[in-house]
Amino acid sequence: MPHPIVLAVVVLDSLSVLLILAAGLDALAVVLSWAPASPTARQVRLERRAESAALRARVATFLFLASTLAFVLAVASVLPGIVPGAMCGTGVLQAMGGDGPQAFALRMASVGVLGAWHLLDRLDRTRPEAPLITVSGRAILLAIPLVTMAVWRTLDALRGLEGQGPVDCCSVVYDGVRNAGTSAEPDGTWLLPAVLVGAAILVALGGAMAAVPRVARRPFTAQALAILAAGWIPAAAVVLVRDLSSYHYGVLAHHCPWCLFAGRHGAVGYPLFGALAVVALDAGGAALAGTIGRRFPQLARPVADRVRGAALRVALAVLVFLVLGAGPALLWRIRNGVWMG
Fold this sequence. Notes:
- The protein is mainly alpha-helical.
- Helices cover 77% and strands 0% of the residues.
Protein backbone atom coordinates (compact mmCIF):
# COMPACT_ATOMS: atom_id res chain seq x y z
CA MET A 1 0.00 0.00 0.00
CA PRO A 2 1.61 3.32 -1.06
CA HIS A 3 2.18 5.94 1.61
CA PRO A 4 -0.48 8.73 1.60
CA ILE A 5 2.09 11.36 0.62
CA VAL A 6 3.10 9.23 -2.38
CA LEU A 7 -0.56 9.00 -3.39
CA ALA A 8 -0.85 12.78 -2.99
CA VAL A 9 2.12 13.32 -5.32
CA VAL A 10 0.66 10.96 -7.93
CA VAL A 11 -2.81 12.52 -7.81
CA LEU A 12 -1.57 16.11 -7.95
CA ASP A 13 0.84 15.27 -10.78
CA SER A 14 -1.90 13.55 -12.77
CA LEU A 15 -4.26 16.49 -12.41
CA SER A 16 -1.57 19.00 -13.35
CA VAL A 17 -0.68 17.06 -16.51
CA LEU A 18 -4.33 16.80 -17.59
CA LEU A 19 -4.90 20.52 -17.05
CA ILE A 20 -1.70 21.64 -18.78
CA LEU A 21 -2.56 19.43 -21.76
CA ALA A 22 -6.04 20.94 -21.94
CA ALA A 23 -4.53 24.43 -21.69
CA GLY A 24 -2.09 23.51 -24.44
CA LEU A 25 -4.89 22.68 -26.89
CA ASP A 26 -6.38 26.13 -26.44
CA ALA A 27 -2.96 27.80 -26.48
CA LEU A 28 -2.06 26.09 -29.76
CA ALA A 29 -5.22 27.41 -31.41
CA VAL A 30 -4.45 30.92 -30.14
CA VAL A 31 -0.84 30.83 -31.33
CA LEU A 32 -1.82 29.62 -34.79
CA SER A 33 -4.86 31.83 -35.47
CA TRP A 34 -4.72 34.90 -33.20
CA ALA A 35 -5.82 38.04 -35.10
CA PRO A 36 -6.58 40.90 -32.68
CA ALA A 37 -7.78 43.26 -35.43
CA SER A 38 -10.35 40.78 -36.74
CA PRO A 39 -13.98 41.35 -35.59
CA THR A 40 -15.08 37.84 -36.59
CA ALA A 41 -16.84 35.24 -34.47
CA ARG A 42 -13.74 33.06 -34.77
CA GLN A 43 -11.65 35.68 -33.03
CA VAL A 44 -14.23 35.95 -30.24
CA ARG A 45 -14.00 32.18 -29.75
CA LEU A 46 -10.20 32.43 -29.68
CA GLU A 47 -10.43 35.07 -26.96
CA ARG A 48 -12.57 32.73 -24.90
CA ARG A 49 -10.13 29.89 -25.49
CA ALA A 50 -7.24 32.15 -24.45
CA GLU A 51 -8.99 32.91 -21.16
CA SER A 52 -9.73 29.21 -20.68
CA ALA A 53 -6.09 28.31 -21.37
CA ALA A 54 -4.86 30.86 -18.83
CA LEU A 55 -7.26 29.63 -16.15
CA ARG A 56 -6.32 25.99 -16.66
CA ALA A 57 -2.62 26.79 -16.75
CA ARG A 58 -2.89 28.73 -13.48
CA VAL A 59 -4.57 25.81 -11.75
CA ALA A 60 -2.06 23.37 -13.28
CA THR A 61 0.81 25.53 -12.02
CA PHE A 62 -0.62 25.59 -8.51
CA LEU A 63 -1.11 21.80 -8.51
CA PHE A 64 2.36 21.14 -9.91
CA LEU A 65 3.96 23.37 -7.28
CA ALA A 66 1.99 21.55 -4.58
CA SER A 67 3.09 18.15 -5.92
CA THR A 68 6.70 19.32 -6.12
CA LEU A 69 6.64 20.45 -2.49
CA ALA A 70 5.00 17.16 -1.51
CA PHE A 71 7.69 15.24 -3.41
CA VAL A 72 10.45 17.16 -1.60
CA LEU A 73 8.72 16.54 1.73
CA ALA A 74 8.39 12.84 0.91
CA VAL A 75 12.06 12.40 -0.04
CA ALA A 76 13.43 14.56 2.76
CA SER A 77 11.21 13.74 5.73
CA VAL A 78 8.82 10.83 5.13
CA LEU A 79 10.39 8.13 2.96
CA PRO A 80 13.67 7.89 4.98
CA GLY A 81 11.60 6.22 7.68
CA ILE A 82 10.30 3.67 5.18
CA VAL A 83 13.26 2.83 2.92
CA PRO A 84 15.48 0.27 4.73
CA GLY A 85 18.81 1.77 5.74
CA ALA A 86 17.95 5.32 4.68
CA MET A 87 18.83 7.98 7.24
CA CYS A 88 17.85 10.97 5.09
CA GLY A 89 16.97 11.93 1.51
CA THR A 90 20.35 10.71 0.28
CA GLY A 91 19.33 7.12 0.99
CA VAL A 92 15.96 7.62 -0.68
CA LEU A 93 17.62 8.97 -3.85
CA GLN A 94 20.07 6.05 -3.72
CA ALA A 95 17.11 3.67 -3.66
CA MET A 96 15.49 5.51 -6.58
CA GLY A 97 18.59 5.14 -8.73
CA GLY A 98 19.06 7.72 -11.46
CA ASP A 99 15.35 8.50 -11.74
CA GLY A 100 15.24 10.56 -8.56
CA PRO A 101 17.83 13.21 -9.53
CA GLN A 102 16.37 13.37 -13.05
CA ALA A 103 12.90 13.94 -11.60
CA PHE A 104 14.18 16.81 -9.47
CA ALA A 105 16.06 18.37 -12.39
CA LEU A 106 13.01 18.20 -14.66
CA ARG A 107 10.79 19.61 -11.92
CA MET A 108 13.10 22.58 -11.43
CA ALA A 109 13.08 23.26 -15.18
CA SER A 110 9.29 22.94 -15.27
CA VAL A 111 8.85 25.33 -12.35
CA GLY A 112 11.10 27.84 -14.11
CA VAL A 113 9.06 27.72 -17.33
CA LEU A 114 5.74 27.86 -15.47
CA GLY A 115 7.04 30.82 -13.47
CA ALA A 116 7.98 32.59 -16.71
CA TRP A 117 4.51 31.89 -18.12
CA HIS A 118 2.90 33.24 -14.95
CA LEU A 119 4.85 36.49 -15.32
CA LEU A 120 3.86 36.80 -18.99
CA ASP A 121 0.22 36.17 -18.13
CA ARG A 122 0.20 38.75 -15.32
CA LEU A 123 1.76 41.40 -17.56
CA ASP A 124 -0.53 40.53 -20.46
CA ARG A 125 -3.64 41.04 -18.35
CA THR A 126 -2.61 44.63 -17.54
CA ARG A 127 -3.51 45.76 -21.09
CA PRO A 128 -6.87 45.25 -22.82
CA GLU A 129 -5.19 44.51 -26.18
CA ALA A 130 -3.26 41.57 -24.64
CA PRO A 131 0.07 42.15 -26.43
CA LEU A 132 1.70 39.02 -24.94
CA ILE A 133 -1.06 36.53 -25.63
CA THR A 134 0.81 34.53 -28.28
CA VAL A 135 4.07 34.66 -26.29
CA SER A 136 2.36 33.27 -23.20
CA GLY A 137 0.72 30.62 -25.38
CA ARG A 138 4.12 29.46 -26.59
CA ALA A 139 5.28 29.30 -22.97
CA ILE A 140 2.39 26.94 -22.17
CA LEU A 141 3.35 24.75 -25.14
CA LEU A 142 6.97 24.70 -23.92
CA ALA A 143 5.87 23.71 -20.41
CA ILE A 144 3.85 20.69 -21.60
CA PRO A 145 6.77 18.33 -22.46
CA LEU A 146 8.76 19.44 -19.41
CA VAL A 147 5.90 18.85 -16.97
CA THR A 148 5.01 15.54 -18.62
CA MET A 149 8.59 14.24 -18.47
CA ALA A 150 8.96 15.43 -14.88
CA VAL A 151 5.82 13.58 -13.83
CA TRP A 152 6.87 10.44 -15.71
CA ARG A 153 10.32 10.44 -14.11
CA THR A 154 8.76 10.99 -10.70
CA LEU A 155 6.55 7.94 -11.20
CA ASP A 156 9.59 5.91 -12.28
CA ALA A 157 11.47 7.05 -9.18
CA LEU A 158 8.60 6.13 -6.86
CA ARG A 159 8.15 2.76 -8.57
CA GLY A 160 11.87 2.11 -8.04
CA LEU A 161 11.26 2.04 -4.28
CA GLU A 162 9.11 -1.11 -4.53
CA GLY A 163 11.09 -4.13 -3.40
CA GLN A 164 14.20 -2.02 -2.84
CA GLY A 165 16.80 -3.65 -0.63
CA PRO A 166 18.63 -1.87 2.20
CA VAL A 167 20.73 1.15 1.28
CA ASP A 168 23.67 2.81 3.00
CA CYS A 169 23.30 6.53 2.45
CA CYS A 170 26.07 7.44 4.88
CA SER A 171 28.60 5.59 2.74
CA VAL A 172 27.74 7.90 -0.15
CA VAL A 173 28.47 10.98 1.96
CA TYR A 174 31.67 9.73 3.58
CA ASP A 175 33.05 8.24 0.36
CA GLY A 176 32.65 11.68 -1.19
CA VAL A 177 34.50 13.29 1.73
CA ARG A 178 37.26 10.67 1.55
CA ASN A 179 37.70 11.20 -2.20
CA ALA A 180 37.73 14.97 -1.77
CA GLY A 181 40.35 14.68 0.95
CA THR A 182 42.70 12.66 -1.27
CA SER A 183 42.26 14.79 -4.39
CA ALA A 184 44.87 17.28 -5.55
CA GLU A 185 42.33 20.02 -6.27
CA PRO A 186 42.51 23.33 -4.35
CA ASP A 187 40.46 23.45 -1.15
CA GLY A 188 38.33 26.36 -2.35
CA THR A 189 38.68 28.45 0.80
CA TRP A 190 38.12 31.53 -1.37
CA LEU A 191 34.53 30.49 -2.06
CA LEU A 192 33.09 31.54 1.32
CA PRO A 193 34.35 35.16 1.11
CA ALA A 194 33.19 35.31 -2.50
CA VAL A 195 29.70 34.18 -1.47
CA LEU A 196 29.55 36.80 1.30
CA VAL A 197 30.66 39.56 -1.09
CA GLY A 198 28.18 38.39 -3.72
CA ALA A 199 25.40 38.36 -1.13
CA ALA A 200 26.23 41.93 -0.11
CA ILE A 201 26.11 43.04 -3.76
CA LEU A 202 22.80 41.26 -4.35
CA VAL A 203 21.23 42.85 -1.28
CA ALA A 204 22.54 46.30 -2.19
CA LEU A 205 21.48 46.05 -5.84
CA GLY A 206 18.09 44.54 -5.05
CA GLY A 207 17.42 47.11 -2.36
CA ALA A 208 18.44 49.98 -4.64
CA MET A 209 16.20 48.72 -7.46
CA ALA A 210 13.26 48.37 -5.07
CA ALA A 211 13.74 51.74 -3.37
CA VAL A 212 14.70 53.91 -6.35
CA PRO A 213 12.46 53.47 -9.45
CA ARG A 214 15.07 55.17 -11.64
CA VAL A 215 17.57 52.42 -10.87
CA ALA A 216 15.07 49.67 -11.75
CA ARG A 217 14.27 51.34 -15.09
CA ARG A 218 17.87 51.56 -16.22
CA PRO A 219 18.77 49.29 -19.17
CA PHE A 220 20.23 45.90 -18.22
CA THR A 221 19.95 46.48 -14.45
CA ALA A 222 17.61 43.51 -14.14
CA GLN A 223 19.92 41.42 -16.35
CA ALA A 224 22.84 42.27 -14.09
CA LEU A 225 20.83 41.09 -11.08
CA ALA A 226 20.02 37.81 -12.86
CA ILE A 227 23.62 37.21 -13.97
CA LEU A 228 24.95 37.85 -10.47
CA ALA A 229 22.29 35.56 -8.95
CA ALA A 230 23.10 32.81 -11.47
CA GLY A 231 26.70 32.75 -10.27
CA TRP A 232 25.90 33.23 -6.60
CA ILE A 233 23.26 30.50 -6.15
CA PRO A 234 25.43 27.42 -6.91
CA ALA A 235 28.35 28.90 -4.96
CA ALA A 236 26.07 29.59 -1.98
CA ALA A 237 24.71 26.03 -2.11
CA VAL A 238 28.25 24.59 -2.11
CA VAL A 239 29.30 26.80 0.82
CA LEU A 240 26.17 25.85 2.73
CA VAL A 241 26.80 22.11 2.37
CA ARG A 242 30.60 22.18 2.65
CA ASP A 243 31.25 24.88 5.26
CA LEU A 244 28.10 25.99 7.07
CA SER A 245 26.28 22.68 7.50
CA SER A 246 28.81 21.56 10.13
CA TYR A 247 27.52 24.23 12.49
CA HIS A 248 23.97 22.91 12.08
CA TYR A 249 25.01 19.28 12.57
CA GLY A 250 27.57 19.89 15.31
CA VAL A 251 30.07 17.57 13.56
CA LEU A 252 32.69 17.97 10.85
CA ALA A 253 32.93 16.30 7.45
CA HIS A 254 29.24 15.45 7.11
CA HIS A 255 28.52 17.20 3.82
CA CYS A 256 24.97 15.96 3.32
CA PRO A 257 22.41 18.51 2.09
CA TRP A 258 19.44 16.27 2.86
CA CYS A 259 20.20 16.08 6.57
CA LEU A 260 19.43 19.81 6.73
CA PHE A 261 15.79 18.87 6.10
CA ALA A 262 15.69 16.49 9.08
CA GLY A 263 13.63 17.49 12.09
CA ARG A 264 16.55 16.83 14.43
CA HIS A 265 18.33 19.76 12.77
CA GLY A 266 15.31 22.04 12.81
CA ALA A 267 14.29 21.28 9.19
CA VAL A 268 16.33 24.34 8.27
CA GLY A 269 16.88 23.00 4.76
CA TYR A 270 13.37 24.02 3.73
CA PRO A 271 13.81 27.79 4.29
CA LEU A 272 17.46 27.73 3.18
CA PHE A 273 16.95 26.04 -0.17
CA GLY A 274 13.59 27.78 -0.47
CA ALA A 275 15.41 31.11 -0.23
CA LEU A 276 17.77 30.03 -3.02
CA ALA A 277 14.74 29.06 -5.13
CA VAL A 278 13.18 32.50 -4.54
CA VAL A 279 16.41 34.19 -5.62
CA ALA A 280 16.53 32.09 -8.81
CA LEU A 281 12.88 32.62 -9.76
CA ASP A 282 12.69 36.32 -8.96
CA ALA A 283 16.06 37.26 -10.45
CA GLY A 284 15.15 35.39 -13.62
CA GLY A 285 11.69 36.97 -13.57
CA ALA A 286 13.20 40.45 -13.25
CA ALA A 287 15.44 39.82 -16.26
CA LEU A 288 12.51 38.50 -18.30
CA ALA A 289 10.33 41.45 -17.31
CA GLY A 290 13.10 43.89 -18.27
CA THR A 291 13.38 42.27 -21.70
CA ILE A 292 9.62 42.49 -22.18
CA GLY A 293 9.63 46.15 -21.16
CA ARG A 294 12.12 47.00 -23.90
CA ARG A 295 10.20 45.12 -26.58
CA PHE A 296 6.75 46.29 -25.51
CA PRO A 297 6.92 49.94 -24.40
CA GLN A 298 3.19 49.98 -23.59
CA LEU A 299 3.96 47.64 -20.67
CA ALA A 300 6.65 49.89 -19.18
CA ARG A 301 4.76 50.74 -15.98
CA PRO A 302 3.66 47.19 -14.96
CA VAL A 303 7.08 45.89 -15.94
CA ALA A 304 8.77 48.43 -13.67
CA ASP A 305 6.51 47.38 -10.79
CA ARG A 306 7.32 43.71 -11.38
CA VAL A 307 11.05 44.37 -11.55
CA ARG A 308 11.01 46.36 -8.31
CA GLY A 309 8.98 43.71 -6.49
CA ALA A 310 11.23 40.90 -7.75
CA ALA A 311 14.37 42.81 -6.73
CA LEU A 312 13.00 43.36 -3.22
CA ARG A 313 12.22 39.65 -2.84
CA VAL A 314 15.72 38.74 -4.03
CA ALA A 315 17.29 41.01 -1.41
CA LEU A 316 15.06 39.62 1.36
CA ALA A 317 15.69 36.00 0.33
CA VAL A 318 19.46 36.54 0.39
CA LEU A 319 19.18 38.03 3.88
CA VAL A 320 17.11 35.05 5.04
CA PHE A 321 19.74 32.67 3.63
CA LEU A 322 22.56 34.53 5.40
CA VAL A 323 20.77 34.69 8.76
CA LEU A 324 19.68 31.05 8.81
CA GLY A 325 22.77 29.63 7.14
CA ALA A 326 25.55 31.61 8.79
CA GLY A 327 23.79 32.40 12.07
CA PRO A 328 24.80 29.14 13.81
CA ALA A 329 28.41 29.69 12.70
CA LEU A 330 28.49 33.14 14.27
CA LEU A 331 26.92 31.81 17.47
CA TRP A 332 29.55 29.05 17.60
CA ARG A 333 32.32 31.62 17.18
CA ILE A 334 30.90 33.85 19.92
CA ARG A 335 30.46 30.98 22.39
CA ASN A 336 33.72 29.13 21.72
CA GLY A 337 36.08 31.79 20.40
CA VAL A 338 37.13 29.67 17.40
CA TRP A 339 35.67 28.43 14.14
CA MET A 340 34.96 24.75 13.52
CA GLY A 341 37.88 23.16 11.75
